[in-house]
Design brief:
The chain contains 14 helices and 20 strands. It is of the alpha+beta class. The chain has a six-stranded antiparallel beta sheet with strand order 15-16-18-19-20-17. It has a five-stranded mixed beta sheet with strand order 4-8-7-6-5, sandwiched between helices.
């Protein structure tokens, strides 16, 4: 849904400025004073538009560089760490090459080898992690790599000048080489996991021209916008573009054309942000019977909308993607295999490791509950290929499970409908029931 926010479809000055910023070539420097002069608006109006553009990811402001139009990255593209993020991760400080902080690195190299051998691993876009070896700092920069100096050491002025000239950052951290390498590796690994989780930002592009109506708009304005677009529900915004309501054809039915929408709309609508997981939005829409959700920023300003159809279609696509990175759930489940019993029920068998133990040396109740939940989710996903979200779970721990023992987890479907599924899950050890759970899950996927 795209067009003007104002009732008549006309853009406000603020919206025109946002569109102007989006249309600028990537790399263009922008100043409040220059934009105010070029667009014939006050500096206050230009400043507010520039700050919102920064929140939407269209510009970036750096000390001593200024505000620059940047290429807004999509989360579902290869999302590598930048040198600036590395600087924050290792709690370091910048020695030189500030202009290159926004560049991405594709790998890091630990400089614990002879110089000639080290240079064989370094290429453009990599990061050399090394101690007080200034000749290595210089050669890495000459090969197009950034440098992270460990142990709190610095570097020479000529190396700093080279970093500025090549626009490649040279950083320093008080931590040792092993510690910073572990910190960076952990951050890279976490990012792989996050890329698996689909967010609203993966399918909604922030826009200053999202179809909406102002509080001051009337039923006639609603009818006009509905006729133009073919849609029957819209967000309602206040004068600061904050989402304050939702209005539908059902809300305005029978009302006179001059009736203000403020008297008819549903106030305080449920909203999502760009970082809301798709599954959470789907659960929200299904449980509340919603067909459209406003997408807002941290100030509740409207930046887009998402429909129920878009959410469910994205979930169906997301469910086909391979897992990247090992979450705690994946680590617990990695040793289990699946087979079918004589009743064609799935049976998951695996050995419980010492890492799963609680304070008494037996398997933790939390681990058992998590394993039963995962078994239920896997069994439910085979049912008409739908996605489910746990609604309630009651667990019974009948006996303790010793570590290093083999258990079987058996989920059984008791009742299944279009909206819900009820299951019983048992944990068996040598034929005895050690724990069981009753679960109710809500269907949120599509066939």
């Amino acid at each position: 849904m795209t067009a003007g926010d104002a009732p008549g479809g006309e853009q406000t000055k603020h919206e025109q400025l946002l569109q102007y910023i989006r249309d600028l070539p990537v790399g263009t420097r922008i100043s409040v004073r220059r934009m105010a002069k070029d667009r014939d608006v006050s500096e206050g109006t230009a400043y507010r538009a520039l700050k919102e553009a920064e929140q939407l990811g269209y510009v970036n402001t750096k000390e001593r560089i200024g505000t620059v139009r940047v290429d807004k990255k999509r989360r579902n593209s290869p999302d590598q760490l930048t040198f600036e993020e590395v600087l924050e991760i290792v709690q370091g400080s910048l020695l030189g090459g500030e202009a290159g902080l926004g560049k991405s690195l594709h790998k890091f190299v630990i400089g614990a080898m002879e110089l000639d051998e080290m240079m064989g691993y370094i290429d453009a876009g990599s990061l050399l992690i090394v101690g007080n070896r200034q000749n290595a700092h210089r050669l890495a920069l000459e090969h197009g790599a950034g440098v992270l100096v460990t142990g709190g050491f610095g570097t020479s002025d000529d190396v700093k000048a080279l970093a500025d000239e090549r626009q490649l950052p040279i950083l320093t951290s008080r931590h040792d080489t092993f510690t910073v390498a572990s910190m960076i590796n952990r951050a890279m690994f976490d990012r792989l996991i996050k890329r698996k989780i689909m967010m609203i930002g993966d399918i909604v592009e922030p826009s200053a021209r999202t179809r909406s109506l102002k509080q001051s708009a009337s039923v006639a304005d609603f009818a006009k916008l509905s006729a133009e677009t073919g849609f029957t529900r819209f967000p309602v915004t206040d004068e600061w573009n904050r989402a304050v309501g939702m209005i539908t054809a059902k809300d305005v039915a029978g009302s006179p054309p001059d009736q203000p929408l403020d008297k008819l709309m549903t106030r305080r609508p449920m909203t999502v942000t760009l970082t809301t997981p798709i599954a959470a939005a789907a659960h929200q829409m299904v449980s509340e019977g919603l067909e459209l959700l406003p997408v807002v920023d941290r100030q509740r300003k409207l930046i887009g909308v998402i429909s129920r159809t878009e959410v469910l279609r994205s979930m169906q696509f997301g469910g086909q993607q391979a897992q990247q990175g090992e979450t705690f759930d994946a680590l617990m489940w990695s040793g289990f295999t699946e087979r079918r019993d004589e009743e064609n029920r799935p049976v998951f068998t695996g050995m419980v490791s010492p890492q799963m133990s609680g304070p008494l040396g037996t398997v933790s109740e939390g681990v058992l509950a998590a394993l039963m939940q995962q078994a239920a989710v896997k069994a439910a996903s085979d049912l008409r290929k739908r996605e489910h979200v746990l609604e309630s779970m009651t667990t019974y721990f009948l006996r303790t499970v010793p570590i290093d023992s083999t258990i079987a987890i058996v989920p059984s479907i008791i009742e299944s409908s279009r909206r819900h599924i009820i299951m019983e899950v048992q944990v068996l050890h040598e034929g005895d029931t050690m724990a069981k759970a009753m679960l109710i899950a809500q269907t949120i996927g599509v066939s």
